[in-house]
């Protein structure tokens, strides 16, 4: 599973900033292991303290050897920042992944 962390405590102006993309696995759908941060991008803030960047629309495709992760990344300040998305693509070798000993406690 790949997902974007939503941290409600990051700022009091922006609801649920989306600046970290995590990867986890489960063999039974109940017990999960945190595998890695695929992307972690702390956004600079505009003058009104709104974040400029965020990770959008993650997807995950798996083959026998690799995980392919794609995301959109909104990375431009302005009134229409979502119109300035950039596609990012990651290829992760499954055999090199090791689970974290514990889930991250910070966002």
Provide a short characterization of the protein structure.
This protein is mainly β and 107 residues long. It has strands spanning 2-4, 20-25, 33-40, 53-62, 66-75, 85-93.
Would you give an account of this structure?
A hairpin with a 3-residue loop joins strand 4 and strand 5 (66-75). The strands form two sheets. Strands 1-2-3 form a three-stranded antiparallel sheet, with no helix packed on it. The protein has a three-stranded antiparallel sheet with strand order 4-5-6, with no helix packed on it. It is mainly beta and 107 residues long. The chain has strands spanning 2-4, 20-25, 33-40, 53-62, 66-75, 85-93.
Rg of Cα set: 15 Å
Largest sheet report = 3 strands, antiparallel
Helix percent band: under 10%
What structural category characterises the helix and strand content? mainly beta
Number of helices: 0
Please state the overall shape, judged from the principal axes of the Cα atoms.
globular
Helix-strand string: EEEEEE
The span between the termini is 17 Å
**Strand order, largest beta sheet:** 1-2-3
- Average pLDDT, to the nearest integer? 78
In terms of DSSP E residues, the strand content is 35-45%
- Total strands: 6
Which parts are unreliable, with pLDDT below 50 for 5 consecutive residues or more?
none
């Amino acid at each position: 599973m790949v997902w974007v962390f939503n941290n409600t405590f990051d700022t009091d102006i922006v609801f649920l900033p989306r600046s970290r993309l995590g990867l986890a696995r489960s063999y039974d759908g109940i017990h999960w292991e945190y595998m890695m941060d695929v992307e972690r991008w702390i956004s600079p803030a505009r003058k009104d303290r709104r974040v400029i960047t965020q990770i959008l629309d993650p997807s995950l495709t798996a083959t026998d050897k690799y995980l392919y992760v794609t995301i959109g990344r909104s990375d431009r300040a302005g009134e229409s920042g979502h119109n300035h998305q950039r596609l990012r693509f990651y290829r992760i070798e499954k055999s090199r992944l090791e689970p974290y000993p514990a889930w991250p406690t910070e966002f």
